[in-house]
């Protein structure tokens, strides 16, 4: 497995080729040094490209016509790798913090997640997935103030808004469900063999079509077009809502952002967070729905 130093260098190479476009080997090595304080050699750079392709499925190749290196195709593998590299960077920081906790506590201010529980179950869940064993646990329903015991085939762990969810198939149900780790207790690995995971790959892929977790609110991927205030547009460029995001900066006070996804409740909540700085233009039904939500909000302040 790649170490912290190597992962940092690989992620920086991906970042440069993603945001700078076609870049020569000399310019890439220069950018690594100037932007990230990473001193490397042409030979190491070539090994890094092979490492990215062989171990992470990311191909950066030399384009003779452009006379530089290009990311062959930016797909989910790039997003997954960058997220993995992000976790690695955090792990390195926290590992240093274990050696000198007083300095870490003095200079690093993490978000308050003291109320969040369930992360201790992640290792057991991953073990069950690896062994193809079913899990059993009790899950709390905050809305109904009840709890229920589930036996499930675990498929994935998914992060959303700094919370972790178990993606699994409960017994006697054909559709996958998401379970917040903070609502799970008494988690145990059973001796029962898990169901065949390949049967649910198509459902898992549906997460790529949505913001968040709910992928069955709408049937088809749709074009969502927003008008976004120019300063807010900069934030969206640095932190996209979805992998399909395309930002079109008109040079005026407002720009355009286009998505291809399945609109859902989580998308609506993300749009509401931007307040008056965003306007839904398409589709018309979503524009009307957002307008109704805003009117309901206004009525609460009368």
TrEMBL record:
<feature type="domain" description="WCX">
    <location>
        <begin position="222"/>
        <end position="298"/>
    </location>
</feature>
<dbReference type="Pfam" id="PF13280">
    <property type="entry name" value="WYL"/>
</dbReference>
<dbReference type="Pfam" id="PF25583">
    <property type="entry name" value="WCX"/>
</dbReference>
<protein>
    <submittedName>
        <fullName>Uncharacterized protein</fullName>
    </submittedName>
</protein>
<feature type="domain" description="WYL">
    <location>
        <begin position="121"/>
        <end position="188"/>
    </location>
</feature>
<dbReference type="InterPro" id="IPR026881">
    <property type="entry name" value="WYL_dom"/>
</dbReference>
<dbReference type="InterPro" id="IPR057727">
    <property type="entry name" value="WCX_dom"/>
</dbReference>
<dbReference type="InterPro" id="IPR051534">
    <property type="entry name" value="CBASS_pafABC_assoc_protein"/>
</dbReference>
């Amino acid at each position: 497995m790649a170490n912290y130093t190597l992962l940092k260098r690989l992620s920086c190479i991906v970042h440069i080729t993603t945001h700078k476009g076609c870049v020569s080997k000399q310019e890439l090595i220069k950018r690594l040094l100037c932007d990230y304080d990473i001193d490397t050699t042409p030979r190491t750079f070539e090994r890094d490209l092979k490492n990215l392709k062989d171990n992470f499925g990311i191909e950066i190749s030399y384009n003779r016509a452009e006379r530089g290196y290009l990311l062959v195709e930016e797909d989910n593998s790039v997003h997954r790798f960058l997220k993995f590299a992000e976790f690695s960077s955090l792990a390195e920081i926290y590992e240093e913090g274990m050696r000198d906790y007083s300095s870490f506590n003095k200079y690093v201010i993490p978000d308050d997640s003291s109320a969040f529980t369930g992360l201790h179950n992640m290792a057991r869940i991953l073990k069950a997935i690896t062994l193809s064993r079913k899990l059993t646990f009790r899950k709390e329903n905050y809305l109904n103030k009840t709890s229920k015991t589930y036996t499930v085939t675990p498929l994935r762990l998914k992060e959303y808004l700094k919370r972790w969810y178990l993606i699994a198939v409960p017994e006697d149900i054909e559709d996958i469900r998401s379970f917040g780790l903070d609502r799970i207790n008494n988690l145990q690995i059973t001796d029962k063999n898990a169901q065949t995971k390949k049967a649910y790959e198509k459902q898992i892929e549906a997460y790529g079509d949505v913001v968040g977790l709910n992928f069955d609110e709408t049937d088809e991927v749709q074009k969502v077009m927003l008008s976004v205030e120019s300063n807010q547009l900069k934030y969206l460029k640095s932190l996209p809502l979805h992998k399909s995001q395309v930002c079109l900066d008109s040079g005026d006070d407002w720009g355009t952002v286009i998505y291809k996804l399945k609109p859902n409740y989580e998308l609506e909540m993300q749009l509401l967070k931007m307040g008056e700085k965003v306007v839904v233009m398409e589709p018309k039904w979503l524009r009307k729905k957002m307008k109704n939500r805003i009117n309901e909000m206004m009525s609460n302040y009368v």
